[in-house]
Amino acid sequence: MNATASTAEETLATAELHIILGQPLRGLSLLKEGELPGEFLSPRRILQARAFRTMRLTEVAAQILYHAVQNEGPNQDYDACLELARMNSFLAYETRD
User: What is the tens place of the pLDDT at every residue in 16-75?
Assistant: First the structure.
């Protein structure tokens, strides 16, 4: 693992920690577009979606994941597909009430 990958993994872990601790804006600021290598695109999108869901913007989160799956294809981004299914399930449950 090179230094860039190690730094990117630390950035993702820190962003996830901020999201879990209820500071989604701090987490989103760490997940800026050009600061992570391309191979970390899927984990970044998933964390962005989780941050938006934390801010009660579940529709935005689902759209981010939907476009990620559309661009990459469902076979390429399985984790994003699973997260999108969770978001859609949550949205269906919430709109039923």
Answer: 999 999 999 999 999 886 677 777 888 888 899 999 989 988 888 888 888 888 877 666
Return all residues near 71 (Cβ < 8 A) that are at least 6 apart: none
Nearest to 90 by CA among 61, 51, 48, 47: 61
What confidence tier does 3 reach under pLDDT thresholds 50, 70, 90? Answer: low
Q: Given a cut of 60, is residue 1 above it in pLDDT?
A: no
Rounded Cα gap, residues 44 and 14, in angstroms: 12
Q: How far apart are CA 97 and CA 1, in angstroms?
A: 47
Are the CB atoms for 8 and 30 separated by under 8 Å? no
Q: Which residue in this structure is represented by tokens 């989103």?
A: 28
Angle between helices 58-72 and 41-54 (to 10 degrees): 160
Helix, strand, coil share (%) of the chain residues, nearest 5: 80, 0, 20
